[in-house]
Amino acid sequence: MKKSAIAIFATLAMVLCTAALAGPAQAAYPNTVATSSKITSSSSVTEGKKFGVTVRVKAGNATVSGGKVAVRFRAKTYTKSLKNGRATFSIRAPKVRHDKRYTIKAKYYRASGSIFKSSPWTSKSIKVINK
Fold it and tell me: pLDDT (tens digit, 9 = 90+) per residue, 8-54?
């Protein structure tokens, strides 16, 4: 009797732990897993020079792939395909008369049929330095 109770308890514990460990990326339906994006770039750049912008997209513990990332800088939109959870852009800083702050915005757009949701816009401020 004791062995049966222990076996049932152990089985129940395994089932509950397995269900708890299943992350949000296990969703079976399209457009159900929330994503978030993060912008990485220099905090300041020199006018007229190119600078790199990397956008990372995460969905819990899952690697997001497929879909596109859009980056907006000075009313211009750049798009690239997302590969292994990231997209990298090369953008040229504008000429300025004096040091000026600009905002970079980024958003992930899901691929058709993907389980991942599109992310909301995220932003980062950069300073363009006059030489």
Answer: 666 766 766 554 445 444 456 788 899 999 999 999 999 999 999 99
Q: Where are the beta strands (DSSP E) in the chain?
A: 36-41, 44-46, 50-59, 62-63, 68-73, 76-81, 86-92, 100-109, 122-129
Domain extent at residue 55: 28-129
Report the domain count for the chain. 1
Tell me if 115 sits within 8 A of 32, measured CB to CB: yes
pTM for the structure as a whole: 0.76
Beta strands 122-129 and 44-46, pairing class? parallel
> What secondary structure letter does DSSP report for 83?
B
CATH no. for residue 45? 2.60.40.730
Assess contact for 87 and 81: CB atoms under 8 A.
yes
DSSP count for the chain of H helices, then E strands: 1, 9
Whether the CB-CB separation of 128 and 99 falls below 8 Å is answered with: yes
